Amino acid sequence: MPSTLAYPAYMPAASADRPLAGLTVLMIEDSRFASEAVRLLCLKSGARIRRADSLMAAQRHLTVYLPSVVIVDLGLPDGSGLDLIRNLSAASQRIPVILATSGDDSLLKDATDAGADGLLSKPIESLAVFQKAVLDRLPPAQRLDGPRIVPSEIVAPDPVAYHDDLAHIAEVLNGSEDEPTLDYAARFLAGVARSAHDDVLEQAAERLALSRETGRSFGPDLARLAGLLQERLESRAVI
């Protein structure tokens, strides 16, 4: 938990078109594509953003400063985001807004039981939904005083970030079929493919995850997923 709390010297005031100005968001997410979407949402909302791609990296951030909002992906490479949410929620200096994010809406109860204030379902791309999720959970003293513009914008992250995610997980899978690696890869690909609206890849990743969960032979599912991954990396036409 934070031992030294650092805040910027100048905190801009929130406005109708930038209702999150003055807030700092810590995004704990291993997907570059998903993180880029939240970066764009923060930029358009007036909030600062920092990113950690693992639980370990998040702890390093949190020893230095206390963000206004933390968004925690539930499936991280070095453990479950639920554990971090529990710790943050029980802290004596609680972060004002703790949100979980996942491509699996069934995890909402687990997240709220762990202490999260809410769940942002992937894909996170609606500016209005993002702003409302944060503003509705801020303490009254930190909310925008007065009316605000309700935007209709949908953000579209750079497809290069999606390609980078696919290249990363291909490297993780290369030559490794141990159970933790396969489970992580299936969850990661299902989430990032959902964020990118890549339905075919999402379904293939979900099939592999289901085979692993039910103890079925997963060889054909893994081969199909690897083939789809290779196709996208070779073509770069990923979205």
UniProtKB/TrEMBL annotation:
Annotated keywords: Phosphoprotein
Phosphoprotein as UniProt keyword: yes
Domain annotation Response regulatory: ranges: 24-137
Chain positions found as 4-aspartylphosphate: D73
Pfam families in alphabetical order: Response_reg (PF00072)
InterPro entries given in the database record: Bact_response_regulator (IPR050595), CheY-like_superfamily (IPR011006), Sig_transdc_resp-reg_receiver (IPR001789)
Protein's UniProt name: Response regulator
